[in-house]
Design goal:
989 residues, alpha/beta, Leucine-rich repeat, LRR (right-handed beta-alpha superhelix), 32-stranded mixed β-sheet, seven-stranded parallel β-sheet, globular, binds 2-acetamido-2-deoxy-beta-D-glucopyranose, signal, transmembrane helix, Leu-rich_rpt_typical-subtyp
């Protein structure tokens, strides 16, 4: 009995010891030496810049590889079963459709990622079931996924996304029959091998592809074998040949999440059935697939929680079918062409948390029923045509975090119920017609971090109290309203802004000293804010992170140099239109964009330009126009190789153009007009073969116009040599400049004929005419992401005007006020895209070519004060856009042709000839001749101008509306994706 008991006790004790040992083992299994060797070998082939695998070493204290970073062993067998070697994403874009292209960049920028190669010895880990190498962009280096992975049949989880592999998926992957989870996103192109269909245990399949659509799903039959599949992500794949994709996928009875965004789907879309099985689907993402309607079968997916159909060009009203999808929490219909009002049926979707209808053509006012959506967390109605006032029901959105109704036509005062939106962090009301003082309704929203109220009709005084609760405010954009900031001299705001735009507020006359507290500012626009003061010395040091500063259009005075202790180092600086004087400031090499135009800087620019620099300056845009800069332009351009736009017009420069300007190999726009530059045409410019716009007008240049222009400057679109003393012939080489659209040689002493080869100036043909409004230079500032448009003063319509927003459309030939002789070449009338033609004040003779009627776009023609004879060709009445015409003081004779336009010009436009008929009072039957200069027909004249003005107005209006919205949008996304990386747009004055 005892023995039995003893044996039993012994057994119990053994059991305890065993259990104890077992328990200890469970916590710290001792790793198997051969597997440790495998890991070390594997590590040996990796590059690990941040030493993440420092624990992987042979030191005896560290010999248990089960405790190494990222390694998991089985508690019982001690075999290595999991390797977690992924590099996590800073912002996890991987399941975010919009950011999926950015994902690559984000991943690529991560510094702790592993590189090197995946050694085949990894396959020796026979018990490994979990392998995550994602995010280690350096592993693949564009090679295809190694085939040996197909031997690791114990794997249930394999993640090679963002590993830099790229190429065909090896068919051996199909051997991994235990796989439950497979992610090869951004790691493959070519056709997906049908062997993937052997992975019958797969539940998760992620195969995101890049934007080049080089991952092909040629047929989907293999998918039908994946009967356990729940998550299928194929964004960016090309399914154009997978004609039965829809029928195959609907038969996957376990499928809950389907993402086909950015896919190329087979055409035609309309053969889609009206009902499909898809019984289990919870999430369907089909954005960017160019399906121009909402497929009917979607309305049968009654379990759907998330639906994304954005950016498909869908037209017509928002269908009522959405109301069937009562469980929807996320509905993205952005970037389509929906053109109804928002149907009330949408407001019956009470579960909605994320509703995005932005970037459509929705109209009408927002109904009270909107208030039913009490679960909303994000509502985006921006960029539509919504009107009316905001309903008081907006106060029901107590959970709303993001509310964007910018770029609509909503008016009225802000409902006081805004106060209830206590969760609100992002509010954008910009570009609407709101009135009143919004801070009444907004001032209690203490969680707000982004407030956009720009471009409304808001007004009133903004006091310290109104801003006191905004302790989380980060971005505050309030420009273009009628606000006056009324704060005490010692006000210390409780927010720390990174971006502040108060353009056109009344902030002055004192320089706002509270800026001193905003240490994190990156973007600061205080242009046109009535500041009448110095820039204090502390300012430049108070905002060390600034990359954009704009104080233009104020009355800032004083010597800028004396307030600057260090060279300016802000990327974009705009101090134009102030009263700054003295010396130009020193720049650090980081400055990218500098506008100091329209000030009173009056000391030579020698120090500015010739300061000792060890590194190349980054400056791309330099505008010093309309100052009083004296002396010679210094010959120190060699360090400023990045300059693209240089504007020195309207100063007091004398002497020759310095040779080193020729080193500006990126230069696209050079404007030195209206100085006193002398000498011959600067031959150094032949090296600036990227030039698009060259303006040397209104100087004292002399000699001939060299043929090198037409040989080297073949990209020129604008060539302006007006008002110099150039003599000799117009070189024929000019005709090689096939992009030339503005040619102005007026007010020189040019002689000889007008070259007949002008008919080679291709850009002045209607069929070749640019339809781009702007002529962009290649200046893209890192902090605005925007190209800078070239602006030029052109003498058209008898006056000088600065062209920028429609410069791309202007075509102009002005050879007036020279000594040109010979006839008007018939070939010039081939330029049927020409808008302005001025040949006046020359010695031209012969007749007006009858083909002048071909120049159908002409708005203005001046051939006055020549010796042109003959009759006015009747074809001139074809010129239906003509609003200016001057043929006076020639030897023209006969009857002025009749036509709708012609008789509307003034008699003086025909004076000094032998012409008769209206608008001249001379009757053609009689022979009386007298000059008349009264205003017959002036009324018509005005009407013409009105239409022309309206046309241009439309064009300009389009750009002031559309361009900013594109940018604001990117702002917003940038803000939420990269708080520390700012994209900003330049002001376009
Ligand atoms: C090993 O044991 C730990 C707890 O000690 C447990 O969390 C873990 O899931 C176990 N791992 C395996 C592979 O069984
Ligand atoms: C896939 O990528 C590889 C490597 O970049 C390239 O050589 C190959 O042409 C691509 N294949 C396809 C089908 O685009």
């Amino acid at each position: 009995m005892d023995c039995v008991r003893m044996k039993f006790s012994f057994f119990i004790v053994c059991l305890f010891i065993f259990a104890f040992a077992f328990a200890v083992c469970r916590d710290t299994p001792l790793c198997i030496p051969s597997e440790r060797e495998t890991l070390l070998k594997f590590k040996h082939h990796l590059i690990d810049p941040f030493n993440r695998l420092s624990s992987w070493n042979n030191a005896s204290a560290n010999s248990n590889c089960c405790q190494w970073a990222g390694v998991v062993c089985n508690n019982l067998t001690a075999h290595i079963v999991q390797l977690h070697l992924n590099t996590p994403d800073p912002g996890d874009y991987r399941f975010d459709d919009e950011g999926y292209v950015k994902a690559l960049e984000a991943v690529a920028s991560r510094r702790s990622r592993l590189g090197g190669e995946i050694n085949p010895c990894l396959a020796d880990l026979k018990h490994l079931n979990y392998l995550d190498l994602s995010g280690n962009y350096g592993l693949g280096e564009g090679k295809s996924i190694p085939a040996f992975l197909g031997a690791m049949t114990s794997l249930t989880h394999l993640d090679l996304s963002y590993t830099g592999f790229y190429g065909k998926i090896p068919s051996q992957i199909g051997n991994l029959s235990n796989l439950v989870y497979l992610d090869l996103s951004f790691a493959a192109n070519g056709t997906i091998p049908s062997h993937i269909g052997n992975l019958s245990n797969l539940v998760y399949l992620y195969l995101r592809s890049d934007s080049y659509k080089l991952l092909f799903v040629e047929n989907v039959d293999w998918l039908s074998r994946l009967s356990k599949l729940e998550y299928l992500y194929l964004p960016g794949a090309n399914l154009s040949k997978a004609f039965n994709w829809l029928h195959t996928l609907q038969a996957l009875l376990s499928l809950t999440n389907l993402n086909l965004s950015y896919c190329t789907l087979p055409l035609p879309h309309h053969s889609q059935p009206s009902a499909l099985n898809f019984s289990s689907l919870l999430s369907l993402h089909m954005s960017n697939v160019s399906c121009p309607f909402v497929p009917k079968w979607i309305f049968g997916l009654t379990k759907l929680v998330s639906l994304d159909l954005s950016n498909n060009g869908i037209q017509g009203p928002i269908p009522d079918g959405f109301q069937n999808l009562t469980l929807l929490q996320t509905l993205h219909l952005s970037w389509n062409l929906f053109s109804s009002s928002i149907p009330d049926s949408l407001y019956s979707l009470r579960q909605l948390k994320f509703l995005r209808l932005d970037e459509n053509n929705l109209n009408g006012s927002i109904s009270n029923a909107l208030g039913n959506l009490t679960s909303l967390s994000e509502l985006d109605l921006s960029n539509n045509h919504l009107s009316g006032n905001l309903t008081d029901q907006i106060g029901n959105f107590e959970k709303v975090v993001i509310l964007d109704i910018s770029f609509n036509s909503i008016g009225g005062t802000l409902p006081i119920s805004f106060r209830k939106l206590s969760s609100l962090k992002y509010l954008d009301l910009s570009k609407n017609h709101f009135i009143g003082n919004p801070f009444e309704s907004l001032k209690s929203l203490c969680k707000l971090s982004h407030l956009g109220i720009t471009d409304n009709h808001f007004e009133g005084a903004v006091k310290e109290d109104d801003l006191a609760n905004f302790t989380n405010m980060n971005v505050f954009h309030g420009k273009e309203n009628n606000f006056t900031l009324q704060v005490g001299p010692n006000w210390c705001p409780r927010f720390q802004l990174t971006s502040l735009d108060m353009r056109s507020w009344k902030l002055g006359p004192k320089f706002p000293s509270w800026i001193q507290s905003q240490k994190n500012l990156q973007y600061l626009d205080m242009s046109n804010t009535w500041i009448l003061d110095y820039i204090p010395t502390w300012f430049w040091e108070a905002i060390p992170h600034a990359s954009y500063v704009n104080f233009s259009h104020n009355h800032i005075h004083g010597k800028l140099m004396t307030t600057l202790r260090n060279p300016l180092s802000i990327k974009v600086v705009d101090l134009s239109r102030n009263n700054l004087y003295g010396k130009l400031p020193y720049l650090s090499k980081d400055v990218n964009w500098l506008d100091m135009s329209s000030n009173s800087f009056s000391e030579t620019m020698d120090d500015f330009l010739c300061q000792k620099q060890h590194k190349l300056m980054q400056l791309q845009f330099l505008n010093l126009a309309s100052n009083k800069l004296p002396g010679r332009i210094p010959d120190c351009w060699i360090n400023w190789n990045n300059l693209v736009v240089v504007n020195l017009q309207g100063n007091h420069f004398i002497g020759n153009l310095p040779p080193s300007i020729g080193y500006l190999s990126s230069l696209q726009s050079l404007n030195i007009r209206n100085n006193s530059i002398s000498g011959i045409f600067p031959t150094t410019l032949r090296k600036n073969n990227q030039l698009i716009s060259l303006d040397l007008g209104e100087n004292n240049l002399s000699g001939t116009i060299p043929s090198l222009i037409g040989e080297s400057l073949l990209n020129l679109r604008i060539l302006r040599l007006r008002s110099n003393s150039f003599s000799g012939h117009i070189p024929n080489e000019i005709c090689n400049m096939t992009f030339l659209q503005d040619l102005d040689f007026a007010h020189n002493s040019l002689s000889g004929n007008i070259p007949s080869c002008f008919s080679h100036l291709n850009a002045m043909f209607e069929k070749n005419k640019s339809s781009d409004l702007f002529i962009y230079s290649g200046v893209t500032t890192q902090c605005t992401g925007e190209d800078t448009a070239i602006s030029v003063f052109l003498w058209t319509k008898g006056r000088d005007a600065e062209y920028k927003s429609i410069l791309g459309l202007v075509t102009n030939v002005d050879l007036s006020n020279n000594n040109l002789s010979g006839t008007i070449p018939r070939e010039i009338t081939d330029l049927d895209g020409l808008i302005y033609l001025n040949l006046s004040h020359n010695q031209l003779s012969g007749e007006i070519p009858p083909s002048i009627g071909n120049m159908r776009l002409l708005e203005s023609i001046d051939i006055s004060r020549n010796q042109i004879s003959g009759e006015i060709p009747s074809t001139i009445s074809n010129l239906s856009f003509l609003s200016r015409l001057d043929m006076s003081h020639n030897h023209l004779k006969g009857k002025i042709p009749t036509g709708t336009q012609i008789q509307s010009f003034e008699a003086s436009d025909f004076a000094g000839n032998n012409l008769c008929g209206p608008p001249l009072p001379t009757n053609c039957d009689s022979n009386q001749k007298f000059l008349v200069t009264d205003n017959i027909g002036a009324k018509w004249h005005e009407v013409n101008w009105f239409f022309v003005g309206m046309e241009i107005g439309l064009v300009v209006g389009f750009w002031t509306v559309v361009a900013p919205f594109l940018i604001y949008k990117s702002w917003r996304y940038a803000y939420f994706s990269f708080l520390d990386e700012m994209l900003y747009k330049l002001k376009s004055y």
